[in-house]
Amino acid sequence: MLVFWNVLDVLDPYKERLITSGFVDWRELPAVMAECDIVLAPLVDTIFNRAKSENKWVEAALVKIPTIASNIGAFAEKIQNNETGILVNNIDAEWFKALDLLVSDSVLRGKLADKAHEEIIHNYSTVYTGYNLASFIRKHLARNIGFVLPSTDISGGVIVALKHADVLRRHGWDVTLIDAVSKHALKIAKKTYSYRYELPGFNVVAMHKTKMKAFFDTQVATLWSTVELVKKQPNVRNRLYFVQNFETDFYIPGTGEPRFLANASYCDQSGIRYITMSLWCQKWLKDVFHKESEYVSNGIDLELYPYRERDFTGKIKILIEGDSKSEYKNTDEAFRIVERLDS
């Protein structure tokens, strides 16, 4: 008989027939148990022991060893008596009868062990039960959403996407920003300025150095170049394309592939859903590309932009907003027009 931990005084007369063992590393325990023919799991009937788990039966069943256990607590709840193990009341005669039965009947030992093993494999292993646990966890988690950005650098499109991300975050969503900047673009950017890797308050993931396998309720493409990235993510329930402009015209005729791919993003056939912050975009998506879209207005933070009556006293101030490097924004033309105004 193999006895774990201390030998009781009552077994002292049989000590030469006993093999004792102290604590065993959990990685070695299956091999040790597999050397046995029967596992005994006696428990005194106390409130504490009723709260103990059925792990000893589970561990034995995994290596196809039958168990005789006290008929209390989790053992009584989980072991099917004479099917996946033997349950006994804490009476000497019952223990002797059960042990004598299994010692003398190898066929019964095999049947109990096989049945218990089948029960454990199908109802206790993570391969079979993991989905139930994942479903329970998912049900209690906040909904999550990933905004796929062409980069985390400051731009009008990124700022708009961040504003929507912040609104969702403040309403309880778990928001992740996915930076899709390529290694090549990042290398070029670093030559001229300090690239903005972090955005305070947001979880930012760099796509070029991260293999994403996490589940997302929703992922949102925020520029034509991010649409294919969203489509390639396997564990995404809802895929959206947040259209903020007619990005085909970001490129002059003759540009080639970028212009064509931007245009193709508005007639995607994969089932991606379109949303837009512009009624103008909503109109041409419908009229030109026959795509339905949901209108999601940007809104204005009234704390930052409080209403006040216009006052035309003094000089009129004119704001010219736009990236002077972007030809399609015509900021140079705006300056030429302003120069013609009265000073």
From TrEMBL:
GO function terms (MF aspect): glycosyltransferase activity
Domain of life: Bacteria
Keyword Ligase part of the UniProt annotation: no
Parts of the chain that traverse the membrane: none
Keyword Glycosyltransferase (UniProt): yes
Known EC number: 2.4.-.-
Key words, A-Z: Glycosyltransferase, Transferase
PANTHER family: GLYCOSYLTRANSFERASE (PTHR12526)
Name by which UniProt lists this protein: Glycosyltransferase
